[in-house]
Write a structure and sequence with these properties.
single chain; 152 residues; 2 helices; globular
Length: 152
């Protein structure tokens, strides 16, 4: 296994730990994650504890405090993939971002909404490939302090 694959698995495990913490905080007991040793474009599925709606989700862990920027982004291809799965399965598509100050932000995605993208310089993989960066179409979401939640 390459170092990048090991780093990817380690990053995925951290994301899963944070989601499990969030699930526990909100009483979610019905969930599963995709395999950490594969490059699935979604991280997992769960059923909402209060709504009983099935949800497909992606998780992003950011090693920055939640107040560093007023926007957060995700690749356009991830959004398109989540919307595609949602259309096929009926699951609600959601993205979760965790920050290093114990805060998180989530964004539900909608089929009838246009998401504009901006070419952005990003690492070539989730955990970077030796510092190599490239342009990728990214969708930016504005975040305000009121939208941030605290994970217990």
């Amino acid at each position: 296994m390459t170092t990048n694959q090991q780093n990817f698995i380690q990053a995925s495990e951290i994301e899963r730990q944070k989601m499990e913490q969030l699930f526990k905080q909100h009483g979610v007991s019905s969930y599963y994650f995709t395999n950490t040793d594969s490059y699935d474009q979604e991280d997992g599925y769960y059923t909402g504890s209060t709504t009983n709606l099935p949800i497909v989700f992606e998780v992003k862990n950011r090693d920055i405090p939640s107040d560093k920027y007023n926007t957060i982004f995700i690749s356009k291809s991830k959004v398109e993939h989540l919307l595609s799965i949602s259309k096929e399965t009926g699951d609600v598509p959601m993205v979760f971002w965790f920050f290093n100050d114990g805060k998180y932000y989530y964004q539900q995605l909608y089929h009838n909404q246009y998401y504009s993208s901006v070419p952005t310089i990003v690492p070539t993989t989730t955990v970077g490939a030796g510092g190599v960066k490239e342009y990728e179409d990214m969708i930016h979401f504005n975040i305000t302090p009121k939208q941030l939640k605290t994970i217990n």
